[in-house]
Write a structure and sequence with these properties.
- This protein is an alpha+beta fold.
- It has one domain: Nucleotidyltransferase, domain 5, CATH 3.30.420.100.
- The protein has 4 helices and 4 strands.
- It has a 4-stranded mixed sheet, sandwiched between helices.
- A hairpin with a 4-residue loop joins strand 1 and strand 2.
- The mean pLDDT is 90.
Length: 123
């Protein structure tokens, strides 16, 4: 069983590296999403300068109240998506490349992406 876990993680890391390599060919900012079992995190990263420009998560103090009121993790993802879109607008970031970090584009990741698009980010 331990061998299977290692193999699964190695496959995921390889897939993630392939996606990142394809995404880094552009010069735009990269919107990276990470989801754990309880929370969702997002960052807008400038790979040329190796800095994080904007970040948002479901444990941020500004949106904690609305996240606690959410009925599901999908609704929490939508709240985080709206939050990062507004923060990006404040920093004059309008266009990004969406890095789903190896996750399938459905469920929480899709809800996050749709909310960020509605908030004004262009992928």
């Amino acid at each position: 069983m331990l061998k299977d876990k290692r193999e699964k993680k190695a496959r995921w890391e390889d897939k993630r590296a392939r996606l990142k390599h394809k995404l880094l060919k552009g010069t735009k900012m990269r919107l990276v999403v990470y989801r754990s079992n309880k929370n969702i995190f997002a960052q807008i990263v400038d790979d040329n300068k190796h800095t994080t420009l904007v970040s948002a998560s479901s444990i941020d103090k500004e949106i904690t109240d609305s996240v606690k009121k959410a009925e599901s993790k999908i609704q929490q993802s939508e709240i985080v998506g709206k939050s990062i879109a507004t923060k990006a607008k404040e920093n004059k970031i309008l266009e990004v490349i969406f890095d789903r970090n190896g996750y399938k584009y459905h469920g929480r990741v899709k809800a996050f992406a749709d909310a960020a698009r509605k908030g004004g980010l262009v992928f």
